[in-house]
Every structure is written in C-alpha cells, then in structure tokens.
C-alpha cells in the first residue's frame, strides 16, 4: 500500500514539474524551445541570452536537411561541440520517434567536422582558435582513409 502512495506522489511531482516547465516555456526568452524541454535546454537558452554561449549551425554532408542549431559555451573545444551534436541528435530522435541508437564511435571515425576548408581534427583545440563564432556553420565531411 505504501508503494501506491509513493507512485502517486511521484506522478504528482512529475505533473507539477511538467506544469512548471510549461510556464517557463511561455516566457518570451524561452518561447522557441520545444514543449517537452529538458533542464539542459533551458540552461543553454539562458546562457545564450547572457552571452555565455553561442549557437553553431551543424550541417550534414548531404545538405538535405536544415542545419542543426547546436548550443555550446563560448570557450568550447571541438570535443564539447561533438558531444553537443550527439545530445542534440539524441533529443531530436527521441522526440520524433526515430532511430534509438546511433554508433557515435562509427560516426566520428567516418566523418569529421569542418569549418570552411579546415577540418576540426584536434578535439582539445578551442572553436575560437579555428575562427568559429556565434551562428557560424560547420559541416560534416567524409574522412579519407589513410
């Protein structure tokens, strides 16, 4: 019987959490976020508004889809951009009911990111060192075999 009470309390807490998030998303600064927003997405949007983060548009190599607006902190490294791309795609797939598992190890072995003609190969290097600024576009390019 205690378990049912705990489940009800959890369901109520979840309902309150969703209601609170829905109120937050109605705020003019956060209105472009999806209905099923995550706390991480809210934090990213707030960081953008305060100038602590930037949006990097990541385009697929085939250019069939619109670029993905990925948010990273101003001093982000290439590795942090890759992780942000993974999170963005994972959330997008969950919301659209698409592929559940993507082998990112395979993706990063097969493709690399490029800004203009320069490949972003050093994961420790900062995006600023490559000249990447807010709203710049990075593309996936096929890696050549050695």
TrEMBL record:
One of its GO terms (cellular component) is U12-type spliceosomal complex. It comes from the Eukaryota. GO terms for biological process: mRNA splicing, via spliceosome. Pfam families: Ubiquitin_4. The keyword Ribonucleoprotein applies. The keyword Calcium does not apply. Residues 54-144 form the SNRNP25 ubiquitin-like domain. Keywords: Ribonucleoprotein. InterPro entries: SNRNP25, SNRNP25_ubiquitin, Ubiquitin-like_domsf. This is U11/U12 small nuclear ribonucleoprotein 25 kDa protein. It comes from Eublepharis macularius. The lineage of its organism: Eukaryota, Metazoa, Chordata, Craniata, Vertebrata.
């Amino acid at each position: 019987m205690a378990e049912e009470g705990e489940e009800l309390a959890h369901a109520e807490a979840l309902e309150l959490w969703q209601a609170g998030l829905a109120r937050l998303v109605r705020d003019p600064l956060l209105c472009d976020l999806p209905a099923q927003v995550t706390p991480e997405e809210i934090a990213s949007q707030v960081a953008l508004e305060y100038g602590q983060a930037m949006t990097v548009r990541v385009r697929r190599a085939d250019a069939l889809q619109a670029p993905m607006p990925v948010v990273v902190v101003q001093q982000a490294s290439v590795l942090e951009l890759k992780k942000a791309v993974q999170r963005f795609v994972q959330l997008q797939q969950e919301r659209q009911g698409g592929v559940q598992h993507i082998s990112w190890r395979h993706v990063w072995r097969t493709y690399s990111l490029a800004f203009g003609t320069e490949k972003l190969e050093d994961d420790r290097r900062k995006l600023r060192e490559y000249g990447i600024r807010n709203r710049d576009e990075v593309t996936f390019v096929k890696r050549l075999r050695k």
